[in-house]
Amino acid sequence: MLLGASSLLLSITLCAGLAPKGPWDAFNYAPASKIVRPVSVRSTHGSVAGAQRLVKDASAKATFTGNSSYVVLDWGKEVGGILSLTINDATPSSQFSLSFTESPQFINPDRSDDSCHSTAAGDGDGVQSFRAPLAKGLLTQTIGQQRGGFRFLTIASNSADPLTISNISLAITFMPHWDDLRAYPGYFFAPNPGFHDVDFLTKLWYAGGWANDASGGPVEGPILVDGAKRDRVFPVTIVYNIILHQTILLRLLFRLMPCCSD
Ligand SMILES: *[C@@H]1O[C@H](CO)[C@@H](O)[C@H](O)[C@H]1NC(C)=O
Ligand SMILES: *[C@@H]1O[C@H](CO)[C@@H](O)[C@H](O)[C@H]1NC(C)=O
């Protein structure tokens, strides 16, 4: 057992490097840049002129008119980090709030999903309010305001006065020790022609790998992990980690995959 463990460690060291390119890359959720933008508008309510522009290009603006008008932006996958947006126009009374949720089931302009402050009623987690008077220009969340583990962002006007914004982005803060989030040393590819979705297993692995990364990083300094909200470690998460980050383990166990150094 002891010998097994030490030869495993040695092999991991020898095998540091990138996974070869292949069809599995299409399933990798990790973005090429740590600055990500919302990919689509899930819904708008009330009056939000040009909401679709918020996902098209950084300089395109949307204008909220009326108290409680809101837009729900979809980031396409689980993200977490420091949000910023540009306030292009606001009156001295314009104000707005942000709410966050991982599942569309909990989209709500008045509260976030219950992942930070869980209560029996599911309403422990409120909104982040940005109150009047707003300063025009780039607004960036503080480290303390950053949010982990969300896919949907709701931006709601909280005043009758108009508000024009653009340039919504998020600087991912998990996995701070990795410059390139796509650079997995390992890979997983297991087409199953007998199943209605031949790529089901591969999708599952990469989704698990990304969810695992979104909870990860060395515990040093102000970083964000969303593991806390799950309040447990899934054994399967460890397996995802092993496979995507260290292909050699699979090789050792199953003699299936090529490795870089032998
Ligand atoms: C848009 O946001 C980025 C941060 O992602 C920032 O660096 C840039 O200055 C912003 N542009 C404007 C015009 O505010
Ligand atoms: C906006 O609407 C909410 C409830 O719908 C209300 O509580 C709040 O006072 C309104 N705010 C303004 C500035 O009118």
From TrEMBL:
Residues 1-17 form the signal peptide. The lineage of its organism: Eukaryota, Fungi, Dikarya, Basidiomycota, Agaricomycotina. This is Uncharacterized protein. Keywords: Signal. It comes from the Eukaryota. It comes from Mycena belliarum.
